[in-house]
Amino acid sequence: MPDNIPSHAGAATVPIEPAAAICDAEARIFLSLPDIVWCLDQDRRFRLCNSAFEAFTGTKQHELVGLCPPFDGIELPQFIRGFMAHSLKCQTERGEHAVRNPKTGSRIYFETTEIALERPDGTPDGYVCVAHDMTRRKSLELELTASRNELFQHAYYDPMTGLPNLRHLAGKLAEASSVASAGRSEGALLKIDLDRFSAINETVGRASGDQVLVEISKRLREESERHGDFLARLDGASFAIIVHHHAGRDDVARDCERLLTRISKPFFVEQKLLTVTASIGASCFPEHGDNAEQLLSQADSALLFAKRGGQNTWRIFDDSLIDEARERFELEADLRKSIESDNFTAHFQAKINLKTGEIAGVEALMRWNHPDMGSIPPGVFIPLAEQTGLIIPLGERVMTDACHFARNWNDGHRKPVRVSVNLSPRQVMLDDFIPLMKGCISRAGCRPEWLELEITENMLMSDPQRIDELMRGLAALGVAVSIDDFGTGYSAISSLTRYPIASLKIDRSFVHTRVDDGKPSAIARTIVAMARELGIKCVAEGIELAGEAEMLRKIGCDEGQGFLWHKPMPEEEFFRWVARYEKSAAAQ
Ligand code: C2E
Ligand code: MG
Ligand code: MG
User: Fold this and answer.
1) Are residues 288 and 370 in the same domain?
2) 353 and 488: one domain?
3) Is 89 inside a domain boundary?
4) C or N terminus of the chain, fewer CB within 10 Å?
5) Which atom of ligand 1 is nearest to the CA of 398?
6) What does 461-502 look like in DSSP terms, one character per residue?
7) Per residue in 118-132, is it b (16+ CB within 10 Å) or e — as a string?
8) What pLDDT was estimated at residue 91?
């Protein structure tokens, strides 16, 4: 019999009962078991253990035999002490224990089993306790969990911002919308898209663009955490928030306003102060759908309409959007047909020298003669033409008209004036814009110095490299450039001095001021002062009243344009108006 199996003789303190006796073969098996095994009697006193037990605890069997907890002066891992101290709750008990290896200090995981023994007559006969080292299995399990977590992280989270991604959002949205359709809650999906993000990226560079996204994510995260909402980053500059528990459209509208305000607070990126705005499209559940796909698509439609409505704005989905989309689709089809059948003409409006009353220039403004609806103003079809790319053939059309007009006017031995044409962002981006212009000019027998192009401030700031090329090309050609709707966008003064700008056109919203208090708006005054400072001509648009013209003249504005003199009109009618205007001026 091996030494460490107590013999009857050695068990002076605790007599080993016959039932617990172990035969030689069994003893060898017991001793060589790799698991830690020990036995207790029915009063939980230590009876025997195997060599794995001794090796692990550093305690010999004879030191423990007959002892009950707390084993004063003997060091034992807590889980072994625990086994000895507590009685069994059921016949067999399993557990898991993590212990520090006393030698190496590393963590060891044991799976423990305690089995209650019975004699053949059914009386209790103590316990066998087994501790199986499952550290290897446990570490594999931990590795597996870690790689699963990593996979989950990749599949469900955006690596740049750490926010949940579209897939994650879709799952959450499906849950939320099914709860809502069971009548248990109401919520909304807000799709948020940063305005002009590609322009921001191009202006500040990709790395700073990423910083912008991180900053906006941080703001949105704070907002959604504060309100218990679920935030995700979809792609590029798009985010989405699932708002739980709203009480109707007014609540959603308030949420949109709150988010837009938070997003548009200026912040620094690499010492540059930036202001970013966004547009939001919202769909509500259960009102607009009971599944994620439908809610996402409706929020998308609402977002599209919000974008079209201008920047920094929101829209909630409703059925009228579908009608609007249908109308837009029909309008687009009509626009294509009208381009083929050439139902467009340019109308002309004079720019008047405010000091002398002379005609100082003319602006060409496009009109669509719709076969059923009559004359459609550019505010309706130019944005649509811009979005669909139809602005390219339309732009060429108006340019051709303007070139013919300029030749007709300036060839008539009059003092030459410039005819201005409005440009759209898409035309500015056109690679062959300069050759295209040259073609129009030469075909019409016009001269470049008789033309002027009107671009907006935002276009001036959109793509510095492209604008540089365009400006150089136009200067070489001899075509002038002016800035339209000045004061409504955001341009840096430096860009006004960098290029040879012929004039600044004050937007008409700053011109219509209260004539009765005799003061032009502060912004009109500032623009005039700035234009003078930079040596650029200043033109006020939309003058309707003689008082407005007088005020603008007094503060030093050079030219005016507006219904006070005449509405834009076709070429022939315009020439008749000119004849009348000059006749009455001569008579004065
Ligand atoms: P814009 O270039 O700022 O043109 C001035 C707009 O103000 C014109 O509107 C003109 O008819 C209107 N207007 C002129 N005087 C007065 C006035 O005294 N009172 C009021 N209330 N309005 C006045 P329109 O022709 O409807 O054009 C609107 C905008 O559409 C233009 O603004 C321009 O941005 C764009 N647009 C017009 N024609 C073209 C074009 O051929 N190409 C491009 N890309 N855009 C064009
Ligand atoms: Mg204009
Ligand atoms: Mg304008």
Assistant:
1) no
2) yes
3) yes
4) C
5) 41
6) HH-HHHHHHHHHHHHHHT-EEEEEEETSS---HHHHHHTTEE
7) eeeeeeebbbbbbbe
8) 56
Residue that is last in its domain, among 269, 289, 317: 317
Nearest ligand, CA 420:
2
Q: Is residue 329 included in any domain, yes or no? A: no
Rounded-to-integer distance, Cα 36 and Cα 291, Å:
56
Model confidence band, residue 92 (pLDDT cutoffs 50, 70, 90): low
Asked whether residue 270 falls in the same domain as residue 378, the answer is no
Mutate which of 433, 515, 541, 548 for ligand 1? The one with the most ligand atoms within 8 Å of its CB, which is 541
Per residue in 458-492, pLDDT tens? 788 777 788 899 999 999 999 999 999 887 766 66
How many Å apart are CA 509 and CA 208, to the nearest integer?
35
Tokens 């027998």: give the residue.
445
Type of residue found at 381: F
In a domain, 588, yes or no: no
pLDDT of 297:
87
Atom number in ligand 1 closest to CA 563: 18
Domains: count for the chain: 3
515 pLDDT higher than 60 = no
| CATH number, residue 409 | 3.20.20.450
Pocket lining: 209 vs ligand 1, CB cutoff 6 Å = no
- Quick check: CB of 487 below 6 Å from ligand 1? no
The label of the residue with tokens 């009618």 reads 573
> Is the confidence at residue 442, as pLDDT, over 80?
yes
In terms of Cα–Cα distance, which of 87, 90, 72, 76 is closest to 131? 76
Q: What is the dihedral of CA 226, 230, 235, 236, to 10 degrees?
A: -10
Q: Last residue of some domain: 254, 285, 317?
A: 317
Is the C-beta atom of 544 inside 6 A of ligand 1?
yes
The whole domain housing 388 covers 334-574
Task: Based on the fold, state whether residues 112 and 200 are members of the same structural domain.
Answer: no
Contact 480, 418 (CB under 8 A): yes
Q: Is pLDDT at 516 greater than 70 in this prediction?
A: no
d(CA 252, CA 314): 10
Report CA torsion sign: 491, 497, 500, 504. positive
Determine the pLDDT at residue 22: 57
pLDDT at 294 > cutoff 60: yes
